[in-house]
What does this fold into?
Amino acid sequence: MARLIRMDGTGHTTVAEWTAEDAQAVEAAVAAFREQLDAGYYAVVSEGEGRARQVDELPLDAPLVILRRPIAGG
Amino acid sequence: MTAEPLRETAAVYWRPRVDDARLVRRGRIWTLTTVAHTIPYGIASAVLLSLEPLTAPLAAILVAHAWVIPALYAKRGANVLKPRPRAAAGPEQTAVGLLGDLVGHDARDLHARTGLVLERGTLGVWLVGESGAVLVRPGGRRVHCWCVHVDDKTLPSADRIAHLLLALRTDEHGFATVANLAFSGARRRLRRRLHPAMRPALDAAGEAAAPAVP
It folds into this structure.
């Protein structure tokens, strides 16, 4: 089962879970994903050690999508 | 090459994107600045002593200045890795679990010992902390210390590191562009000012960045 998680004060929170075959879960995950992006989170897919990719659409084939806050210098 | 630049670079659009050549140039400027801060005090103290040996106390103060100013810069560099107050045990443990999933066994072990994550990049070897990162340049002798953080004080320590790590992995050059350079200089100068518990991480990064001995 794929997961959308948000890094927050609890360590992390699972925002949505889905499988490609479950249309209802996919729809809910896409809506939750959009909501988090609108709230200012960035979505990242870890692609193994040393590589990550930021995404604007929920990649349904990714096992784990991580939501992070923006970073800043200083 | 990175497919897409880090989103946060839009907030610092006036900064030229960091690349290898820019890092070399900035390193040289830092060295020149350090020399410019040090040499005049050394010359002044020598001149004073040669003119009047009784000015020895004043000459000693000038020499102390020549030593203290570069030391303060190095301390500023070490401060980018300074640990922040811990969150509650539960969230910290959860966050360490996620961070552990993102890195390999060796990096996990190093993080458990030093609180820092070692990450190899194209610009050198990075040590990622909670509110900053140190880049050990190829060869292992020069470091660049960057101040960069996620603006959420409720986050557990490992989550703060994971934020920086994911941004670094997304776009290394963009990460260095967004971050503020706090210090650039010799690794040994930074090591002296680093918390002793963190020194093994800097040593490991130095070894990883050093050319392989045949």
User: Anything to note?
Assistant: The first strand of chain A starts at residue 2 and ends at 6. The mean pLDDT of chain A is 95. The CA atoms of residues 20 and 60 of chain A lie 7 Å apart.
